[in-house]
## 1
Amino acid sequence: MSIWICKACGSHYASNDAPPAHCSICDDERQFVPEGGQEWIARETLASTHENDWSELEPNLVSIGVSPTIGIGQRALLVLSLHGNVLWDCTPILDETTRDRILMLGSIKVICLSHPHFYTGMVEWSEALGGVPILLPQADLPYVTRTSEHIRPWLGDRYEVLPGINLHRLGGHFEGSSVLEWEVGADQNGVLFVGDTVQVVPGRGWVSFMYSYPNLIPLPTREVRRIARRIAEIRFDRIYGGWRDKFISNNAKESVARSAERHIRRLES
Ligand SMILES: [Zn+2]
């Protein structure tokens, strides 16, 4: 069985022979097929040209990306807790050095993800780390491009992953789009990992809410209101987005509330 990786989005596909004709993630209107057409990289090729990078963002939190950048520049976040470690989001590759480094910090209890654009190498990571369960919202199972016995669907809007670490399914960008609450992060003030369920934007202290980021299709105001209401119920002060430079270090809850107001005001004006 060969593993083929979409060069544009980083999704994995298992195939007995040639790569598939299309990438279903890129064909969707929330991504795009690049001008030059669909391109694939064999997993072994990617492993010989790319490696993971590693940076500690705060105590008990590590960011793991891929260098040089592949796909949409996904990164994973490793949360260390007394009850076991959690991997939030994923990257298209996991190199051996990084795997060993992760395992030295203790076993990963679960892999959970913000949305399908970060599913990428989740099955490879799960297998390399000892068959870690992959929690996916039931609604987004149709977007899985490489299936696995380790995938565990979850239903509803909230799921306690471990004590003090909770998934909240907010929808919007995808029906299953989620955020992860880490209660003791940011010096006990609470952290929210958002992927792009809520997108941290360049204007400092602001976020946005889109159905499609590359194609600039906004979410309707009723959806933004609903998401803002759900987020208002979560206690947190800091946000880490899906990408390395996307974060709001404090007062992030206010940032989400005022960004939702701004979005709604502009769409309704
Ligand atoms: Zn793709």
Note: The longest strand covers residues 51-58.
## 2
Amino acid sequence: MEEIGIVIVGGGIAGLATSLALHRKGIKSVVLERAEKVRSEGAGIGTLTNGWRALDQLGVSDRLRLTSNLIHKARTMLIEDGKKKRAFVLNIKDEARCIRRNDLVEALADALPDGTIRFNSQIVSIEEDETTSFPIVCLSNGNTIKAKVLIGCDGANSVVSDYLRLGPKKAFACRAVRGFTNYPNGHGFPHELLRMKTGNVLVGRLPLNANQVFWFVVHMQDSQHNGKDQKSIANVTLKWVDELSEDWKEMVKICDVESLTLTHLRYRSPWEIMFGKFRRGTVTVAGDAMHVMGPFLGQGGSAALEDAVVLARCLARKMGPDHGDLLKDCSVKSIEEAIDEYVNERRMRLVGLSTQTYLTGRSLQTQSMVIRLMFIVLLVLLFGRDQIRHTKYDCGRL
Ligand SMILES: Cc1cc2nc3c(=O)[nH]c(=O)nc-3n(C[C@H](O)[C@H](O)[C@H](O)COP(=O)(O)OP(=O)(O)OC[C@H]3O[C@@H](n4cnc5c(N)ncnc54)[C@H](O)[C@@H]3O)c2cc1C
């Protein structure tokens, strides 16, 4: 059996960022990713000030700023019976940009030392070593790895969160499709985030540059379509936008079909984030494996980046650098204390984000004006009039 000091399961945003944050602190890790290369499903990702602060700490923000434009405005419109009912415009003073997912994961992966990421490495289960209590990771190819520290960044269907005995995630009755559309002669849309809710459909678009637009379509009630292949995802999306104006239909019709992803939206309840046990021995989780949330605030990815910075800081504070691959001179107690500090530091931030995301999602889902108003009042009572205060959070220095 192979032995490794720190194993990270999952090479998505959370896994790569955690490995990079540890690397910046002089601590080695190995990332096990089931895919054959870094994955960029989801096309684009809106990244707000708090996310950029974390990217600054990881040392990849300058590279990403070169390929993403600033967004100065967010416009939300409610349409009923084909007429504009309500519109809210938010002037964004801080840093907000849409990044191509591919650019983000590549920037993180490129900054890691060679050999850190092991592709085609799917973990299927975790066992506990009877003598040391360290986790033993079992891979689909039959190999096993004993890790001194195991960090689960394996997304919403996390095997590691099952090992922590966290409850199953809950499902919104919504499906979302994300994709890119290229307009060779320019799209002509203003450089702002536009979100529109009409009937059961919430659509949004965000220009990346003069020619390319990132967009999403969320159907609030359709939990049927699974989207077997790219073509059927495109067809389902076209059906969803059927009632919208020509520019939205055109955007879906001429989209880059290969960029489409269909996701059934899930969340870990704020209640479970408040009381969940996020450490078992020297095993913990980060990113969606810890706190998958709906996309309604656009904070899941940025929260994963914050997790990475805080976890690496806590581990480095207790362990210090240069322990070699196996962390031989590092006590289990100090690792456990470091993970507890990480969980404590993250917990209330994540309870706030997941509660606000949940309430925002429910307010968009309901057809009843009275219930919507109730959710809005609750949001104002809990989070104040400044509903984007969550973007001002600073996860601190690495
Ligand atoms: C419609 C939609 C829109 C969104 N928009 C935004 C946005 O604008 N801004 C934002 O910040 N966030 C957004 N999010 C949330 C964001 O996409 C996620 O929070 C983020 O991708 C989480 O990253 P992660 O690394 O934790 O998980 P993932 O991206 O799911 O990565 C998990 C990785 O683990 C690997 N893996 C899984 N299981 C195993 C296994 N058993 N063995 C080995 N490898 C494994 C997977 O292959 C994958 O590479 C959105 C989400 C949705 C659904």
Note: The pocket of flavin-adenine dinucleotide is lined by residues 9-15, 32-35, 39, 42, 45-46, 122-123, 153-155, 159, 176, 178, 216, 263, 265, 287-289, 295, 298-302, 304 (CB under 6 Å).
## 3
Amino acid sequence: MPTLISKTTSDRPVSMAAESPLLSHKARLPYGGRGDIASSTTIDVRHVTDNDIPEWTRTWSTGYLRTPGEDTADHIREALIGARAIGAFEADRCVGTYRSTTQELTVPGGATLPACTLSKVTVAGTHRRRGLLRRMLDMDMREAGGRGEAVAILDAAEYAIYGRFGFGPAASMAWFTIDVHRAHVDRRQMDDTVGVELVTAAEYRKLASDVYERFRTTQPGALRRDDAWWDQATGLRTSLGSHWVEPYFAVYTSASTGEVDGFVCFTAEEAWQAMQPHSPLLVKDLIALNPAAERALTRYVVKVDWVSTVHLPCRAPDTLAPRWLGDPRAARVTALSDYLWLRILDVPRALSARTYAVDGSLVLKIKDADGYGEGTWLLDGGPQGATCVPTTRPADIVLGVDALAALYLGDDSFTRLAALTSIEEERAGALAVADAMFRTARRPWSPRAATHPEARPC
Ligand SMILES: CC(C)(COP(=O)(O)OP(=O)(O)OC[C@H]1O[C@@H](n2cnc3c(N)ncnc32)[C@H](O)[C@@H]1OP(=O)(O)O)[C@@H](O)C(=O)NCCC(=O)NCCS
């Protein structure tokens, strides 16, 4: 079996100076961070080799409260192709797991940024709170600069974990449950779903992946979906720990252009109570390029015969879905939560990659205890583009790198965060200027394929 993942099995500190000129002295500490490593010096944090995978899988399964099956290590081996896997090892025993891949994150204006995407982060219960997550994360963040990744992102399992590492909640999601009988959508009328047709998994894979590719650069927060992603979504490859139930696939074709402008993937279970149909329908994925496509696809799933409840998990927090119903109150929000967390590693690159709602100029002093974004930056931006360079001018606003992350995609306001955090306005009116510049017409969203109707990580 070839070694799939790592080029090195050493945990020697990587030379950051060679990788990112942006790192400050703090990020160059020999152990690479501020975590208390005194209690974990006998633990080796290093890249994982193929031989480590069964042990690494066991630790990861325990951390995610999953029971590993016979083929779990093989699934993990496959999931680590093209990824970086790090482990914390005490002698031969794995006590920490961490995986990252390189993704493309869409930012306001439609540009994409290379993003280090973290997943499968666990530390054994016996070894928690000894700085092992800090050590694994520090190792990868140091290497991210060399890979050209300007930001790091993850879907945070819990709110409290990642703020201390410079991450901020950058995009949210909403979970809806629609009571079909209250929705005031007339099932006898068919004209509002014209253009929707059911397709096979193979047709869907081709059509939906084309739609998504057109969609993702229009949606700040969206990520790339590769072939492996579509293989899983259409059952060609089963995802780890999931029981595959063949979904229904539908696409929407615009009558005026003949283009496929949207798709939906859903499951439904037959259920009856006292001779009345009570079937729940779960929308796993729904992407629309325009309101007409979103309206037709939403009304299509609400009109499926025998269905009494439609679950719409993992949606954009400002989705139009409820407004396509006769009675929007029939769509109850069951959860509204932070979801995508972001850490800015390269401030000038990130700030100059996005566009701004209005022309403006700001001097931002960024505080970053790990050094990556520390500095004072002059941002000149507008609808056509932006520049961001170091400056010696006095700051207009002083803020932490975690606050900047929460503001970056447009999901929060400077004024609101200033009330909650230690953002300081050094020049009167600067917060209002920043709010006007960073505002986006729609909220950011990072679409995921939902596997469950309840509010839990997608
Ligand atoms: C989250 C997890 C990986 C943290 O590992 P760890 O090695 O204990 O983390 P560290 O010791 O490096 O912790 C760094 C800091 O974060 C804090 N922290 C970590 N997880 C936390 C949590 N769930 N709630 C509150 N604080 C947390 C620690 O207390 C520590 O604080 P300090 O810097 O003030 O000492 C581990 O608890 C775990 O495996 N949890 C279950 C799986 C999980 O949730 N993974 C994350 C998926 S996104």
Note: The domain at 25-149 is CATH 3.40.630.30 (Aminopeptidase).
## 4
Amino acid sequence: MALGRLDLFSGRFVYDPYPWLDALRSDSPVHHDPRTGFWLVSRHQDVRSVLLDPDSFRPDNAQNAATPLSVAALRVLARAGFRLAPALANNGTASHPGLRREVTRFFNAARVTAAVPMIERIAGELVQAAEERVVADGTCDLFSTFAQVLPCRVLMELLGIRGVEVSSLIRWSDASLELFWGAPTPQRQLELAEQVADFHRWLTEAVRDTAARPGSFTAALARHRLPDGSPLDPAAAVAACFFVFVAGQSTTGQLIATVLRTALTEPGLWPLPGHEPGLAEAWVEEVLRREPPVTTWRRVTARAVELGGSHLPAGAPLLLMLMGSGSDPEVFPHPERMCPRRENIRHHLAFGAGRHRCPGASLARTEAAIALRTAARRLPRARLTPQGTKAPMLGLLSFRAPLNVVIESS
Ligand code: HEM
């Protein structure tokens, strides 16, 4: 595999990244990619050590636009007052721990456990509708009718989000991912910027109107005090909401899509996760290791450092290949095999590690396992159609998943 031909946005990479990720790990574990300017870090041990050392490897570039935005797109965003003040993933300052605590309060283990009946109810409703559609039309796309919708509805319940259509939140969240993590043409940037501007206007209104929503996430942000005792300025509150609303739904929808797709294609597996205790959870874990929705994450060096035998200057942008690290044979024997009984099944880095580790991990895992169990139970004879088998893939700098999971059933 000639690494000189690597193009992270190409169909070749997006459809089958494994040979490239293997070559990176074995031939050039800290590899300078001339197309993007990133240093690609691919061994599990190196990725983990970067994540666990936030003083040397700062998170400041985590949300920078992967492709420079056109003046016209920037103008559309500016008109909506859009700016992403450091809040969570891109915040290496003293305000981060307190803001992060506000988020974890909404998604801690106790909250997620208490939410299980609600998640099961929504999953049941959506799969029943999918079942009816298969009966009526012969096929149904489990991505757009189920995988995408479940995390959005659950997030709205947990955060107390009201007064907005589920379809708008999904559209805005997907547009945000494509604008900031994709390689859109100038024309497409303009369309996406209009969506993101609408999202930002709605968030600004929601942050302003917190009195009407006691118990909501925006109300918690309004009460929040920074380390110096001052309240959060509205731009930082909007930035925190922006990240949580996007991170909390699109990524989980992508995970559910890959979980369903892999479970439907693995010989002999479907519909076992519907009944075998623990199998749905273990399958989700193996998907997170081998084919996670968040494929990479960014850091920037705070000073000159040595990493995996390479010398990096201060200010070097790093792209941590989370997906590649889950297939590192030094940590996971036979990484290409999906092994629900793998001993170190949770040692993957799909949710990051350390100070910025994903606070939504428990929710994402729970939703995906419930989604798989519910679909396997209610649609035991489902199989992918030819359209589902050849589904196009979302291929952004940090996000990858099938864009449809079309099934039929006998
Ligand atoms: C499958 C689903 C998900 C995946 C794979 C995922 C992955 C990640 C990753 C890789 C990070 C960066 C970690 C780091 O820098 O060390 C992150 C951060 C974050 N995630 Fe998730 N995430 C998912 C779902 C969620 C959900 C459901 C929520 C909220 C409900 C959420 C909220 C956040 C937040 C707020 C951060 C920033 C945390 C901080 O900077 O302290 N994520 N996530």
Note: The longest helix spans residues 109-137.
